[in-house]
Amino acid sequence: MATQREEDAAEYLKKHRIIELLDNLSCMLFFHRPEKPREFLIEQLEQLKISQKTQLKGPNLFNSANLDAVFGILDPADQKYITFAQYKQALITLGIEDINECPEGVNEDKISHETFRTEAMQGLQRRSATYEQP
């Protein structure tokens, strides 16, 4: 059984999304492998702070070209769509947890390239939005 202090610590981490923040920063660090990691992390935190204040996009591991490449792998016949199952698995693989279960095209089981890219970018942005103002 957890002590009150442990419960308070867990609540603090959850409230301020500290685990997600550290996870995102670690992923970015390993992805970019900067020569000066401390400066890189400071820059990322500054970008998160600016994006929170200005409502601009924060730092993200993936860009639209990366998402286009993922879609291309899932659509090797160039049909211009993927199945809902492919869409869902791709977003999970990208680390997106809060997936839109009813994207455009779900009823036909044909998720377009544009829908995939839009949903993925929005999900990635939500995932990277780990900075909270006091």
Automatic annotation (TrEMBL):
Pfam families: EF_EFCAB10_C. SUPFAM superfamilies: Dimerization-anchoring domain of cAMP-dependent PK regulatory subunit (SSF47391). Residues 65-125 form the EFCAB10 C-terminal EF-hand domain. It comes from the Eukaryota. Signal peptide: none annotated. This is EFCAB10 C-terminal EF-hand domain-containing protein. It comes from Eleginops maclovinus (Patagonian blennie).
